[in-house]
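hey can u check if this looks right to u? its 122 residues, i copy pasted from the old doc so theres a chance i mangled smth
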Amino acid sequence: MADWLPIAAISECPPGKSLERVVGERIVALANVDGVWHAIDGLCPHQGGPLGTGKLCGAVLTCPWHGWQFDMPSGRHRLSATVIQPRFDVREAEGSVLIRVEGGSPVELPPASPTPSGGTTA
């Protein structure tokens, strides 16, 4: 059975910001996209850069090391549809942001599927 663990106070990550947290043995990039929480694997697949410390512009998080960009709702790389970061369930409760974990590790969501208009659905 999965549990929800706090990873940040809501006040630590205002809209338009991201941060990095360790959950179990995973590094997670948490982002507040206009009041909607998103979490993806926090290690950039390019060279392991810290995605959570990157710049969030709209729903796009840019790795601070080499500029790789990821769509936070889908986890997809902006230029390569085959590069997808694992996404995690996130919610808020009682002033905290929580991530769903099982056995100490975040529970991955299935990949978001592309919509006919080119967007994604979660």
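The chain is about 0% helix and 45% strand.
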